[in-house]
Amino acid sequence: MEREAGRWALWIVIVTICAVAVLAYLALTRSAHAQGQLCAPRSVMIAELAARYDEKLTVQGLSDDGSLVEIYAASDGRTWTMLRIRPPLNLACVVTSGQHLEIKDLPGRGL
User: Fold this and answer.
1) Is residue 100 left, alpha or beta, with left meaning phi > 0 and alpha meaning psi from -120 to 50?
2) Which position has the higher pLDDT, 47 or 14?
3) 19-74: pLDDT as tens digits
4) Is residue 24 a contact partner of residue 18, using CB atoms and an 8 Å limit?
5) Do the strands 39-41 and 55-62 form a parallel or antiparallel pair, or are they unpaired?
6) Would you call 90 helix, strand, or coil by DSSP?
7) Residues with Cβ < 8 Å from 33, sequence gap 6 or more?
8) Which residues neighbour 101 within 8 Å (Cβ) at sequence distance 6 or greater?
9) Are 91 and 31 in contact (CB under 8 A)?
């Protein structure tokens, strides 16, 4: 009887943790949508950019607020998309997108 009660207690803890994680994820995605941003898990966003626009990771850096910023571009530069990745849920939000991307040399570094 004690063993079964322990299993139930463990089950309740696991379900509670999962529920909190889902609610946190929904809260973050809803707040991003409320701000007019398109957001999705990073892996989903990357797959969509590749499938729809043939875009691949081109530029990556850290912003001052600690977010990861990535630019995905088609190999011919005809389309590009800038994403902000928000930790800890690895949520990717589109910051902006455009056409005709041209990458310049960084000072002191050739491409």
Assistant:
1) left
2) 47
3) 444 445 555 544 444 356 799 999 999 999 999 999 999 999 999 988 899 999 99
4) no
5) unpaired
6) coil
7) 39
8) 58, 71, 73, 74, 77, 79, 80
9) no
Residue 79 in this model has a pLDDT that exceeds 60: yes
4, 23, 33, 62, 104 from 45: Cα distances, Å: 43, 21, 15, 18, 26
Give the type of residue at 5: A
| Beta-strand pair 68-74/55-62 | antiparallel
Give the pLDDT confidence score for residue 66 in this predicted structure. Answer: 86
Q: Which ranges of 1-111 would DSSP assign to H, the alpha helix?
A: 2-34, 42-53
Angle at 93 between CA 62 and CA 67, to 5 degrees: 20
Question: Within the chain, what is the greatest distance between any pair of CA atoms?
Answer: 71
- The tokens for 19 are 């529920």
